[in-house]
Design brief:
- The complex is a heterotrimer of chains A (304), B (341) and C (310).
- Chain A has 11 helices and 13 strands.
- Chain A has helices at 39-46, 68-71, 89-99, 104-117, 133-145, 163-178, 190-196, 214-220, 235-242, 266-280, 294-302; strands at residues 2-11, 14-24, 27-32, 54-59, 74-77, 151-155, 182-186, 199-204, 207-213, 226-231, 248-253, 258-263, 286-288.
- The model of chain A has no long low-confidence stretch (mean pLDDT 86).
- The relative contact order of chain B is 0.13.
- Chain B is 71% helix and 0% strand.
- Chain C has 310 residues and is of the alpha/beta class.
- In chain C, helix 3 (98-109) runs parallel beside helix 5 (142-154), helix 4 crosses helix 5 (142-154) and helix 9 (244-252) crosses helix 10.
- The longest helix of chain C has 16 residues, at 172-187.
- Classes of the chains: A alpha/beta (304), B mainly alpha (341), C alpha/beta (310).
Chain lengths: 304, 341, 310
C-alpha cells in the first residue's frame, strides 16, 4: 500500500531520512526508533506534508505530496494535541468531517459511528477543554477514521493513556487492522507495541535498520546468541548435560538456581534439549528465552 | 567496613541540613547573585549615574573658571563680576537638590534595570513549572513570595544607591567647603526614597510577571505601563508650563517670574503631575528630601516652572497601597496544583 | 488483600481531598510499605492527588497523613526535607545551568552551600548528566530533562522519593536507563520509592509491590508476585508452530488444556511441575512438535490490573 523507493530527505544540512526503500502492506506496522531517528520525517512524508529530496514515495500508486486523492485515503492522528478547546468532542469530529467534504447530515452520522467505535459516544458532548489525555486521544482517532481511509497513521497514540484506556484503544486498532486497513503506529513503549503487532519498521539515524517480522529479525541477529534460561531444581546436573551440546556457547549458574545459556542455532538446540530431558529424566520447571521480545531486539539492533 | 574499592553507586546524603525555616533568603540570594553576575546590570548601574558625572564636570569647570576669575578680577570689571556671580552660585548650591536630580534623571535606567532583573522572575518560573521544585522542597508559598520580592528588590535598590553613594563620598571628600556636609543627612532620605521606589518597581513587576508565562511579555507590559503613565505626567507638565508661556510672552522678565508666583493654575495639576510610576518615585524623593527640584545641571532653579513637592504621606501610602495590591495579585497566582476535573 | 506490612514509610488515614465539588480522594487509608512501591490507577483516579497531599500541596478536608513518622499537615516543611519529588511535568529553573540548578535545589532543601554544590556534582554524575552539567537546562533533550528532574529530587538525600510518570516521553533507550536508575536507587535500603506510572511494564521492572487507586479509593494493595500468580499453577507452553496433534498427545496424558492462542498453549495438571513438563516433552516427541518455551504461567501485571479495576 505504501511504497518507498530510495527515499531521502534533508532539512538544510540535517538529514531526516537516508535512502529508505521499503514496502508497507496492510495490517499493523510499528514504526520504531530513538528520538531523532527519522520517524516524524517519515510520517510527514507519508502524509504528504513534505516531499522527499530524492527518491520516490507512492501511496496506493500515487505521490502523496499535496495530493488530495491520497489524502482521501489517509487518516492521521498526530502526536500533539491541539484542538479547538471550546468545541465539544462531537462538534470537533463533525467539523473535521465537514472539512473532509461530507455534507452536514453525513458528517453527523459518520461522527456518531466513529465516536461509538472509539468508545466516546456517551462522553462526546462535553467541551474538549475538560477532556483527559485518553479522551483526547480517542477524539483524535475518531477524527482520523472518519472518512474511512485505507491507511491510518498513529503518532504516539499510547502516550498518556492509562492502562484501561490503552487496552481499549489497542482493541479498536486491532479491530481496524482486521478490516484490512494499513495502520502505522509509532511508539516508544515497546512492550505495548509488541502486544499489537510483530511487524516492525525500525529507523535508526535516518536509515532503515530493520523491517519485517520480529521473530524473523531476531533469528537473523547472529551477533547476539540466543539467551535461554532453564529453571530447574537440579542446576548442576542440567548444566553438565547442557555442556554436551555443541550449540551452547556459554553457561551461567544463576544464584536462584537457574541455568542461563547462550546458544547458537536455536533451531537445533530446542529438539536437543527435549531429547536430553527425556533421556536423562531431567527435572525442568521452566524454559524461556528472555531476549525473545521486542525490547531486546530493539536493543540489539540499535546497539543500546 | 571500609573496602579498598569505593562504591560509586548511589549513596544517600546524611550531612548537615539547615532547619526548614527562612528559605526565602536562599531564593533572594540566588536572584541577587544572578543579577550581580550579569554584565548588563552593571552597565546600566553605571549609566544610571550619568547625571552625577555631568554635574561633577560642571562643578569642575566652574571651579577652574573661578580660579581664573580671581586672577582676572583686576583687569576687566564686567567679565569678572559675571564670573564672581557664578562662583557665588556654587557657594549657594543646594546639594540635596543634586540627589533629587541624580535620582530623577536615572529613572529610565532604573526601569531598564528593573526589567532586566524582575520581568522574568516569576513568568519564567511559570513557564518552566519551577514552582514544583520550590514547593516540593521545604519551602512555603510565603518563602517563595518573600524570596522573589527581595531577590528583585535588592538588585534594584543596589543599582539606585551605588552611583549616589559614589557621589556622596566624593562630595564629602571634595566639597565640604561648599557646604556639602550640611546636606549629609539628606542622603539617608534619598536612600529611603530609593528603597520605596524599588519596592514599587518590584511589586508591580512581580505582579505582572506572575500573570504571564514569558518574561519578555511581562517586561513589555510593565514597560508600556510605565511609559503610558509617564506620558500622562509629561502632558500634565505641559499644562503646568502653559500659563508660564503666556506670562512670559506678555513681556514679564525672568526676574519677575523668579521673584513671585505670578501664575494661576488648577489645583489638581500638582497632584496629577505625580500620577505615574516615575512621578510617584520622584514625588516621594522630593517630599523626603524636602526640595521642589527644578532645573538641573547647575542652572539656577525656575520656581514658577517647578512643580512643588507633593504631600509625602499621601505619596507614601499610595505607593504602599499599590505595592500591596500587586503583591496580593502575585500571592494569589502562586498555586502548586492545577485543579483537575 | 494482604495485611499491611509493619514497617510503613508513609501512612494515610481516612484522607478526603476535594477540589471544589470534585472529590479526588475519598476516605482514603493506606500503609505504604518500605521499598519500591508502584502506584497504579486509571487517569483521574487520584494518584497525583495522593502524591500532592503527601507533599502538603493540597490541604485535605479531613484525615491525616504521616511520612517517616512525621505529620504531613503539621510538619510539612520537615517532611519535605526528607522527601524528593520528580514531578510529571517538565520543570526546571529558567536560565540556570544543570549544576547551578541542582545545587540550588539542594540549598532550598536546607543543605549548606558548599555541601549542596558537592552533592550536586555527585548526583548529576550518578544520573548520567556528568558531561552536560555546565549546560543550560533549557537546551536539554527530553531524556536529559527527565534525568535532571531526578537529580534535583535526589540532591538532598531524601528517604522517600516520589516519581510521577518517570519515563514519560522517553525513547526506548532512555526508558531503559531511567528504569535502571530507579531500580538502583530503590535497592539502596535507605531510600524508599513510590512510582506512579501508566506503563505497567515499567512498574513490573522496578517495584516489589503495588497500590491500585480507583476513583479516589484504595482498590488493592499487595506484592506483584501475589498479584500475578494464577491459581493452580498452570503452565504456558510455547511451540514452534501450532500443533493440534501435540495438544491431543498432551490431553491423552491427563493434562487439560486451558486455552490456546496460536502457538501458545496453557495447560494444567494437578501434579508437580517437573512431572508435567516431562509429559509435555514426551508429547512433543510423539507428535513431532518443538517446544520453544515452558513456564509456570503468570498473569501480566496488565491483566491483573484490568481484573482488579473491573
Amino acid at each position: 500500500m505504501i511504497e518507498l523507493d530510495h527515499v531521502s530527505r534533508w532539512f538544510g544540512l540535517v538529514i531526516g531520512l537516508n535512502d529508505v526503500s521499503a514496502h508497507i502492506g496492510p495490517g499493523i506496522t510499528a514504526l520504531l526508533g530513538q528520538n531523532g531517528a527519522g520517524k516524524t520525517t517519515m510520517i510527514r512524508m507519508i502524509t504528504g506534508q513534505i516531499r522527499p529530496t530524492t527518491g520516490r514515495i507512492e501511496i496506493l500508486g500515487e505521490e502523496p505530496f499535496a495530493n488530495p486523492n491520497v489524502f482521501r485515503q489517509l487518516g492521521y492522528c498526530p502526536e500533539i494535541d491541539q484542538f479547538y478547546e471550546w468545541m465539544t468532542g462531537r462538534e470537533f469530529v463533525e467539523h473535521m468531517g465537514r472539512l473532509s467534504g461530507f455534507g452536514a447530515s453525513e458528517a453527523k452520522e459518520r461522527s456518531q459511528r466513529m465516536l461509538q467505535i472509539v468508545g466516546m459516544a456517551d462522553r462526546c458532548d462535553k467541551k474538549i477543554a475538560g477532556y483527559s489525555k485518553g479522551m483526547r486521544q480517542r477524539i483524535k482517532l475518531a477524527q482520523a477514521m472518519l472518512h474511512d481511509p485505507k491507511i491510518i497513521l498513529l503518532d504516539e497514540p499510547l502516550n498518556g493513556l492509562d492502562p484501561v484506556g490503552r487496552h481499549e484503544f489497542m482493541q479498536v486498532v486491532a479491530g481496524l487492522a482486521d478490516r484490512g486497513k494499513c495502520i502505522i503506529i509509532s511508539s516508544h513503549i515497546l512492550s505495548e507495541v509488541e502486544q499489537l503487532t510483530h511487524n516492525i519498521f525500525l529507523l535508526h539515524r535516518g536509515r532503515l535498520l530493520a523491517t519485517g517480522n520480529l521473530t524473523t529479525i531476531r533469528n537473523l541477529i547472529d551477533k547476539h546468541p540466543h539467551r535461554i534460561r532453564i529453571e530447574t531444581p537440579e542446576p548442576q546436573r542440567v548444566a553438565s548435560l547442557m555442556l554436551t551440546l555443541d550449540n551452547v556457547l556459554s553457561l551461567d549458574l544463576d544464584r536462584d538456581g537457574a541455568v542461563d545459556l547462550e546458544v547458537k542455532n536455536a533451531d537445533t538446540f530446542y529438539p536437543a534439549v527435549a531429547n536430553l530431558v527425556l533421556e536423562h529424566d531431567l527435572k525442568i520447571h521452566g524454559l524461556a528465552s528472555p531476549d525473545n521480545n521486542l525490547e531486546s531486539v530493539f536493543q540489539y539492533l540499535v546497539g543500546a | 567496613m571500609s573496602s579498598p574499592i569505593a562504591d560509586l553507586s548511589y549513596r544517600t546524603y546524611d550531612g548537615p541540613l539547615n532547619p526548614p525555616s527562612a528559605r526565602w533568603w536562599v531564593i533572594a540570594k540566588m536572584h541577587t547573585l544572578k543579577a550581580f553576575r550579569n554584565r548588563f546590570y552593571w552597565l546600566f548601574v553605571g549609566l544610571s549615574g550619568w547625571y552625577y558625572l555631568v554635574i561633577l564636570t560642571v562643578i569642575f569647570i566652574m571651579q577652574m573658571v573661578s580660579s581664573n576669575a580671581t586672577e582676572m578680577v583686576g583687569t576687566s570689571g564686567e567679565a569678572a563680576n559675571e564670573l564672581v556671580r557664578q562662583i557665588q552660585f556654587i557657594d549657594r548650591f543646594l546639594w540635596k537638590n543634586q540627589y533629587l536630580h541624580g535620582f530623577s534623571y536615572g529613572q529610565l535606567t532604573y526601569l531598564i534595570i528593573a526589567l532586566l532583573v524582575g520581568a522574568g522572575a516569576v513568568a519564567n518560573d511559570n513557564r518552566s513549572n519551577a514552582l514544583l521544585v520550590y514547593l516540593s522542597k521545604p519551602c512555603t508559598k510565603l518563602d517563595y513570595v518573600v524570596g522573589k520580592f527581595f531577590g528583585v528588590w535588592i538588585p534594584i535598590v543596589t543599582a539606585m544607591v551605588v552611583p549616589s553613594l559614589f557621589f556622596f563620598l566624593y562630595g564629602m571628600m571634595s566639597y565640604r567647603g561648599q557646604g556639602f556636609a550640611l546636606y549629609a543627612p539628606a542622603f539617608l532620605s534619598l536612600v529611603l526614597a530609593m528603597a520605596m521606589s524599588a519596592a514599587l518597581h518590584t511589586s508591580i513587576l512581580l505582579g505582572i510577571s506572575s500573570l504571564m508565562k514569558q518574561g519578555r511579555i511581562a517586561g513589555i507590559i510593565y514597560g508600556a505601563l510605565y511609559m503610558i503613565t509617564n506620558i500622562f505626567t509629561v502632558m500634565i507638565w505641559a499644562f503646568w508650563l502653559q500659563p508660564l508661556g503666556q506670562v512670559r510672552s506678555n513681556g514679564a522678565t525672568t526676574n519677575a517670574i523668579l521673584g513671585a508666583e505670578v501664575v494661576d493654575r488648577n489645583p489638581l495639576l500638582q497632584p496629577a503631575f505625580y500620577g505615574s510610576i516615575d512621578g510617584l518615585n520622584i514625588g516621594l524623593a522630593k517630599a523626603l528630601l524636602n526640595v521642589d527640584g527644578g532645573n538641573g545641571f547647575g542652572m539656577p532653579p525656575d520656581p514658577a516652572a517647578t512643580v512643588p513637592a507633593p504631600n509625602g504621606f499621601m505619596v507614601f501610602w499610595l505607593m504602599a497601597a499599590i505595592c500591596a495590591f500587586w503583591l496580593f495579585v502575585f500571592w494569589r497566582r502562586v498555586r502548586a496544583v492545577e485543579v483537575v476535573g | 488483600m494482604n495485611a499491611p506490612p509493619l514497617e510503613a514509610v508513609a501512612s494515610v488515614v481516612n484522607l478526603t481531598v476535594r477540589y471544589g465539588r470534585f472529590t479526588a480522594l475519598h476516605d482514603f487509608s493506606v500503609q505504604i510499605p518500605n521499598g519500591c512501591v508502584g502506584l497504579l490507577g486509571p487517569n483521574g483516579a487520584g494518584k497525583t492527588t495522593l502524591l500532592k497531599t503527601l507533599l502538603g500541596f493540597v490541604k485535605p478536608s479531613s484525615g491525616t497523613a504521616t511520612i517517616l513518622g512525621k505529620s504531613v499537615l503539621k510538619e510539612g516543611a520537615a517532611v519535605r526535607q526528607k522527601v524528593g519529588l520528580m514531578p510529571e511535568q517538565d520543570c526546571h529553573l529558567p536560565g540556570m545551568s544543570a549544576i547551578e540548578f541542582v545545587a540550588y535545589a539542594g540549598e532550598l532543601a536546607g543543605m549548606p552551600q558548599a555541601q549542596a554544590l558537592r552533592r550536586a556534582h555527585e548526583v548529576l554524575e550518578y544520573s548520567g548528566l556528568g558531561e552536560a552539567r555546565y549546560r543550560k537546562v533549557e537546551t536539554f533533550s527530553t531524556g536529559m530533562k527527565q534525568r535532571i528532574k531526578l537529580a534535583q529530587a535526589l540532591v538532598h538525600g531524601p528517604k522517600l522519593l516520589l516519581l510521577d510518570e518517570p519515563t514519560n516521553g522517553l525513547d526506548p533507550r532512555g526508558r531503559e536507563e531511567m528504569l535502571k536508575l530507579i531500580r538502583d536507587i530503590s535497592l539502596h535500603k535507605d531510600v524508599n520509592v513510590i512510582v506512579s506510572s501508566h506503563i505497567l511494564r515499567d512498574i513490573e521492572k522496578t517495584c516489589e509491590s503495588v497500590l491500585v487507586v480507583v476513583k479516589g479509593q484504595l482498590k488493592m494493595q499487595g506484592s506483584i508476585k501475589d498479584l500475578t500468580r494464577i491459581q493452580g499453577h498452570p503452565i504456558d507452553v510455547e511451540l514452534k508452530d501450532p500443533s493440534p496433534s501435540w495438544q491431543e498427545a498432551v490431553s491423552r496424558r491427563g493434562i487439560s488444556i486451558v486455552h490456546t492462542e496460536r502457538n501458545k498453549v496453557r495447560v494444567h495438571q494437578e501434579a508437580p511441575t517437573e512431572v508435567t513438563t516431562k509429559l509435555i516433552f514426551e508429547a512433543a516427541r510423539e507428535s513431532g512438535a518443538e517446544i520453544r518455551g515452558l513456564n509456570v504461567a503468570t498473569k501480566s501485571l496488565e491483566e491483573a490490573f484490568l481484573e482488579v479495576i473491573h
